[in-house]
Amino acid sequence: MSRSTFILVVSLYGLLLSLGMLFAPEPLLQGYGNPVKDTLHVVLFQFLGMSNLGVAIIGLLIRNAEPSLGLRAFLTGQAVTLVGGVALGVYHVTMMGVPNSTFFTVDSLWRLALGLGMVYYLMRLKPVASLA
Fold first, then answer.
1. Is 65 left (phi over 0), alpha (psi -120 to 50) or beta?
2. Is 100 helix (H, G, I), strand (E, B) or coil?
């Protein structure tokens, strides 16, 4: 799979998840294992959905870019966000007693694969002269 196609897949997933977080936060929160419907969780989830939407749009706009500092920054940021988010989620479930769910497990494995894919494409990126 080409880097451009991979970034497209990641960005479309981010876009889909963001729209769910913005417009259907309660069902998604329940899918992640949070049975409580309270305003604080919904508001926070929507805020994170908006942040996620911005990153997904950046991905759609930068996916065909030639190797550059901007592309390198995007790949690095996505790798940290995806892999770090999985690590944080596992910590929350195993150490803090946050409820686990099948949706969380599948989503975490998917995000880990996407994050490792970002690392792979980052490592294959040709050096940029302006980075030296």
1. beta
2. coil
pLDDT beneath 50, residues of the chain:
none
- Burial class from Cβ neighbours inside 10 Å (0-12, 13-18, 19+) for residue 30 reads middle
User: Distances from the Cα of 106 to the Cαs of 14, 24, 57, 66, 112, in angstroms?
Assistant: 15, 19, 24, 33, 10
The CA distance from 33 to 57, in Å, is: 28
Structure tokens at 27: 């069902």
Cβ burial of 109 (10 Å; 0-12, 13-18, 19+) is: exposed
Q: What's the pTM?
A: 0.84
Residue 131, pLDDT score: 54
Residue entry with tokens 């999985």: 86
pLDDT tens figures, 38-68: 888 889 889 999 999 999 999 999 999 988 8
User: Helices in 35-124 by DSSP H: which ranges?
Assistant: 39-62, 69-95, 102-124
